[in-house]
Amino acid sequence: MKFFLKLLIAYSILCRLFGVIIEKKGLSFNESITYLCAAGKESSYQDFVNKDSSTVVLNQAITNNYVPEPGTHFNDVSYGMAMTDRHPPLFFLIMHAVVKCIGYSMYDGLVVNFILTLLCLALLYKISDRIFQDKLYTYIACAIWMLSSATAHINIEGREYQLLCFFILSNLYLNFKIIFDNDYRLQTFLYFILINAGGFLTHYYYGFLLIPSTLILFMVNKLNKKFLIYMSSLLISLGLFFLIYHDFFLFWHHFSRAPKFETGTTNRIKPLIYTPLEFFSWFHIGRYIYLALLAIYLLYIIVKKNLIKVIKSKLGIISPTSFVFYSLVWYIVFTYIFYLKGISPAQASGMHYFCYIWPLLSIFLVLLFSYFSPDKIKLIFSIHLVQLAISLIFALSHDTYYAGNVVNQNWVSKINSSDILYMETPDRGLMPRTAINFKDNLKVLFGRDTQKNYELLSSFSHISLLIPFDDKGKTDTSAKDLLALFKKNNFKINSSMNEDYIFYEVEPNK
Predict the structure, then answer these.
(1) DSSP alpha helices (H): ranges in 19-86?
(2) β-bridge partners, 422
(3) Which segments of 424-490 are extended strands (E)?
(4) What pLDDT is recorded for position 506?
(5) What are 307-346's pLDDT values in tens digits?
């Protein structure tokens, strides 16, 4: 069985490489923002697109925003993050260094995330082995995490969530050494300080995620010297955060006044139930089957195994198992509350945003079925892991959001041969990643001044228009008004569409 599990883990790694090398065709919306930030041009890009209501530029002026200027610009990266984004800068500083070293490529962030995935796997193995003290169960937990399509998506998008997962698992591992091994050596706390500083610099939620470990250490030691050393190390980590990211105060000034994300509580509850089930299966029907099976099993162990009594006996004492369990419960509760309150964005209902939940949930699933005999456990998880293995390859080969290109390839030659391209919105997550498909000297017009746009475009004989759909599958009113002017003046219009855009070819009737 152990050899089978190792093969599945190796298969999950190969699947990620397949997703990156074979299936990855373009940048996602958020990846576009990553590379703008990594180039240190997040803030200057906003100035660039807001300079006029209707602007004609060469396409290279847009795509150059992914390329850093000569020299290093770490301060520009931090400043841009503070002024225009909602994340601390560490991942983007790392990306800046990578882009400076090897040049811009859509694979830069994926390479970073692939390395982080292997580091997270090693940490999960260490944590699981400490809990189970049985290599079989340790490998099962690792295989569940690696094979889940919810975790694999993190590897095919260049974002900071795998780095956050790395810091959370590193923190848990060091907490095991401090709390349960009584390891208060200077070397351990130096690692602890650096790991926590890195976590603070990766995501603003990191501090909230430290609450369970801090409370557990307080329960063990009360207000003694060891607890004060622990708290002092956290304060030093926080001090390093402010020292490295002194632009945080600019961020606080800007975003403390920003409105929350729209809640629409009913609409948010639905994805909060459905989306996390991708951890169990990418297939839609599979998610509901797992939901039903887990509900039946939980009812069974509550009634037959007296779950409340088991929880009191096993989780009533401070141990690595109870530490992981209470951390998992807090991570879920905290994440759900922030999501439902509109503090987290609408897409924060699973996958990347649950990056710190998935490893602990993998461990918890194995613990949940520990009532069965070893033979039954092997059978149950063999079936589950095979299903995950099938689900994984389907997810990586069918999910166009993370791997697909926003522009159909048959459009590219038509757009490159046109006199000018109109792109309605200069959104940082849309226009740059669209522009990288086209030739450098292509004229591009963007802006929403309908009359001015028509006057500029109508002077050309071969016009291309790319009009994006919004999140409700509709186009903007200004685009409709522009097309109405072309029709009114007897222009010839052909159209086609994909999931992201409607493409129009516009020519005057001869």
Answers:
(1) 29-38, 42-49, 59-63, 74-84
(2) 445, 465
(3) 443-447, 463-468
(4) 94
(5) 666 666 666 678 899 999 999 999 999 998 888 887 787 6
DSSP 3-state of 25: coil
DSSP letters, 245-295, are -TTHHHHHHHHTSSPPPP--HHHHHHHHHHGGGGGT-SSHHHHHHHHHHHH
The counts of H helices and E strands in the chain are 26, 6
Residues 51/450, Cβ–Cβ less than 8 Å = no
For residue 337, what is the enclosing H or E element? Answer: helix 320-340
Q: How far is Cα 293 from Cα 371, in angstroms, rounded to an integer? A: 16
In single-letter form, the type of residue at position 198 comes to G
Which residues pair with residue 493 across a beta bridge? 506
Separation of alpha carbons 4 and 139, rounded Å = 10
The DSSP call for residue 341 is T
Task: For residue 288, give the amino acid letter.
Answer: Y
Hey, what are 20's tokens? 């990156």
Question: Does residue 164 contact residue 355 with C-beta atoms inside 8 Å?
Answer: yes
CA of 507: how far to CAs of 113, 127, 178, 411, 422, in Å?
A: 45, 64, 71, 16, 13
What integer pLDDT is reported at residue 491 of this predicted model?
A: 93
Could you give phi then psi for residue 246, rounded to 5 degrees?
-70, -15
What pLDDT shows up at residue 510? 66
Place of tokens 């990620």: 16
Whether the pTM exceeds 0.85: the reply is yes
Extract the tokens encoding 91: 């991942």
Dist CA 70 CA 90 (whole Å): 21
State mean pLDDT over 94-107: 93
How open is the CA angle 314-151-288, to the nearest 5 degrees?
Answer: 75
Asked if 503 and 421 touch (Cβ cutoff 8 Å), the reply is no
